[in-house]
Amino acid sequence: MSFVENLYKDYDGFHLKIPKWEILDQGVTALWGPSGSGKTSVFRVLLGLETCENLSWRWGEQDLAKISTPQKNLGVVFQGLELFPHLSARENIFFGARARRIAPDRAEDRFKKMDQVLGFARFLDRKAELLSGGEKQRVALARALMTFPRMLFLDEPFSALDEGLKSEARRLLKNLLQETKTPALLITHDERDLKELASKITEIRDGQLISGI
Amino acid sequence: MSSSKTIRIFLIALFLAPYLLLLTHWNHFSLPPFEELAWIFKNSLIQSILSSVIAIALGFWWARGLLFLEQKLSPSQNRGLEFLILLPNFLPALFLLLILLSVITPFPFGLTGVILVHALMNASLAALFLKDILKKKLRSLAELCWVEGASSVAFWKEGFRYLRGDFFWLFAFIFILCFCSFAVPLIAGGGKVTTFEVAIYEKIRTSTDWGQAIGLSYLQFGFLLLFSFLPSEHPAPQRERLERAPYLKSVSGGVSAILFSFFWIGVFLWQSATGFAKLLQIEGLWRETLRVIPLSLFLSLGVGFAILALLFLSAYAFPDSWLKRFFLGFVAPSTALLGFVFLFLPSWFAGDEFLKWMIAFVILIFAPLYRWGWVQRLEGLRGQVQVARTMGADARMIFQKILLPQTLDLACRLSAVASLWALGDFALSKMIISRPATLALMAESLMSSYRIEGAMAVTALILFFGFILFLVFRGVENVIRRKFV
User: Fold this and answer.
1) With contacts defined as CB-CB under 8 Å, which chain B residues touch A95?
2) Superfamily for domain range A2-211
3) pTM for the whole structure
4) B232 and B303 together in one domain
5) B214, B232, B263 — which closes off a domain?
C-alpha cells in the first residue's frame, strides 16, 4: 500500500485539499472527475513537477515526497504523449533505459516482452513525428515502462485517440500492465476507462476527494 | 553543486556584472536640474509614444495588405515578401538610417527624424505581429459579420475592442525599443533630441559627469522596470485560411507593403552601386576598408559564438523558471552607460578594447534574442524535458539528446543574427573602440562627414559579409549536428 498525506495546494483561487489518500501498489488506481476538478494538478504534484509543502507519500519505508523526481522511479505518459519527435520509435523506447543505465540485455528482454503485447516491429525505425496516433500511444507506453518504474502515471492517455482505437489501446494497456506487473495511477474523465481498467476508483471534485479515499 | 546550478549562477553573475561594476566603481549618483530632466523625459516620451503609434498604425495597414496578398501570391512569394518587409527591423540601424538620409533631402533632423526612422523601422514588425493576431483572433468574427451583413465599421468597432490587449502589448514592446534606442536618436536627432540614452552619452562624453549619467540610467531603468510587469508572452501565431473575411484585408495596404519592400532595397542597391565608385576614387579609402574587414569579421564571429554558447548554457539550465524570469525581465543598462563602464575599466591587456566591446555587446543583445523566439522554443520542449527527467535522465543527457537536436537550428540562426548586429554596430563600438577600426565605424565616420554614398557602399559590404556569416553559422549547425547529435 502507499499513502498520500497532506496534499494541500493553492492555485489563485483553486484549492487542492487532500488530507489522506491510499494509492494501490498493485493494479490500477483511477482518479476520476470532470474537467477542472484538479486531477492533473494532483498528478503533477505527485510526480514532483510542482512543489507541495508538508506532502508525504509513503511507499513502504520510503517517503517519495521527500526525494527528487528522477529518484522516485516513476513512469509517465502525459496527455500529449510528449514523444521526442526527432528520435525513432526505438530510440524513444530505449531512452529511459539509457538514462537509468539499465544493462543492455535486461533492457532487451523488457523490450521483447513489451513487443509481444504491443507489436511495434513495423514502425520501430520510423521517427516519432511520423507515427500514427495509435503507434505513438504504444511507443509512449513502452518508453514509460522500459525503466522498470515502481508505478506508471497516466494522464488521460487515450484522449488523443479516436473511438475505434481507444478500446484497443485500453486492452493493450491492461495486458501490458499485467505482463510487466506494474501498478498505475490513471487520471481520466472517461467512465469506460474505469470500467475496463480500474482496480480502485477515487472521485475528485473541486480539488477534494469525495469517494474511494 | 550541480552543473545546472553553476551555469545559472554564472549567467546571472555575467549579466549583473555591469550593475555591480557601476555600484563598486562609481557609487555616487545625482540627477540633472529639474528643467533639464523634464526636457529629457519629454523628448524620450514623445518620440517613443509617437514612433510606436505611427508604427502600429502603419503596421496595421500593412498587416491587412499582407492578408490580402496571402490569397494572391504563392506561399513562397509571401514568405519572400515578409522577409523583405522585416529586413529594416532586423538589420543594423545604420542601414535604414542611410537609406532615409539619402532619399529625404534635407533630412528632418530632430524629433521628426527620430520618429520617422523609428516608425519605419518598427512598422514591419508590427505588421507581421498584427497579421497573425488578426488571423487568429478575428477571422471567425469577420466571417460572421460578413455573412450576416454587418458593416465594416460595426465589425472594426468590436474587433478593436477585442484586440485592445494585443495592441497594448505591441505598443509597450515598440515603446521600449524606441525608449532604449541609442543609435537612431544620436544620428537622426542631429543634436536636437536629447533622449535618456543620448543624455547619458553626453553627460559622460562631454561633461564627464558620471554621477548624473548614472542617476539618469537608474531613472530610465526604474521607468522601464514598470513595463516588465506586463505579460511577456504573446499568443503564438497560427496559419488559417482567410478566403471569406474581406473586412480583414486591404488592397491599398498590400500595394503599400510591396512598394515599401522593394523601394528601400532598390534605393539601397542603386546608392551602394554609385557609392562603390566613390569609395574607389577617394585616395586610400578602399585600402582602409579592406584592412578593417578581417577584424570586423573576427569580432562579429566572436559575438556570434559567445551568443551560441550562452544560448546553449541557458538551455542546459532549463527548465528553471527563475532564470527564465530573469532573462524575460532583464533590462541591460543604457547602451551609453554600458559602453563607458567598459571603456573606463582598468586595462586588462593591450588591445583589450575589442574584448571589452564584445562582452558589452553580448550583454546588450542576449536578453532580446532570448525573448525573440528562444524562450518559446524551450518552453515548447518543457513536456519532453519533464518526461525525460521523470525517466531519470540527468541534465547532460537531456541537453544532448532532447534539447540540442531540437534547438540547434534556432540557436545558430540567432547567433548569425547576433553576429550581423555586431558587424553593423557603431553605437557601442564608437564608445569603446573609438577609432574607425571596423566596417560599421567606417560607415558611421563616412556618414558623419555626409559621404552618404560611400557609407552606403561600406554598409553593402556589411550586408554581404552578414550573408557570409549566416552561411558560416549554417556550417556550424551542420558540424554540431554531425558530431554531437
Assistant:
1) 388, 391, 393, 401
2) P-loop containing nucleotide triphosphate hydrolases (3.40.50.300)
3) 0.81
4) no
5) B263
pLDDT band with cut points at 50, 70 and 90 for residue B239: very low
Query: How far apart are the C-alpha atoms of B17 and B2, rounded to whole Å?
Result: 22
Mutation target to probe the B interface, by most B beta carbons within 10 A, among A67, A69, A92 is A69
- What is the extent of the structural domain holding B64? 31-263
B404 to chain A: nearest residue by CA?
A86
Residues B367 and B251 in one domain: no
- Strand pairing category for A14-23 and A62-63: unpaired
> Which residues of A make CB contacts under 8 Å with B?
47, 49, 69-70, 72-76, 78, 80, 82-87, 95-96, 98-100, 143-144, 147, 153
Establish if B268 belongs to a structural domain: no
Q: Which of B383, B393, B405 sits opposite A82 (nearest CB)?
A: B383
Nearest to B219 by CA among B344, B32, B367: B32
Number of Cβ within 10 Å of residue B29's Cβ equals 17
In a domain, residue B434? The reply is yes
- For residue A96, which residues of chain B lie inside 8 Å, CB to CB? 391-393
CB-nearest to B390 from A69, A80, A84 is: A69
Q: Which residues contact B153 (CB under 8 A, 6 or more apart)?
A: none
* Contact call for residues A213 and A20 (beta carbons, < 8 A): yes
Number of Cβ within 10 Å of residue B377's Cβ equals: 17
Distance from CA of A80 to the nearest CA of B (A): 8
Q: Please name the residue ranges forming H helices in B135-195.
A: 139-148, 152-162, 164-180, 183-188
Structural domain total, chain B: 2
Residue B272 counted as domain residue: no
| Average pLDDT rounded to a whole number, residues B342-358 | 84
Residue A213 grid cell:
479515499
Complex-level ipTM = 0.83
Q: Which of A49, A85, A96 minimises the CB distance to B392?
A: A96
Q: Which domain-ending residue is among B235, B263, B291?
A: B263
Domain ranges of chain A: 2-211
B420-445 pLDDT, tens per residue? 999 999 889 988 887 888 999 998 88
Closest residue in B to A67 (Cα) is B390
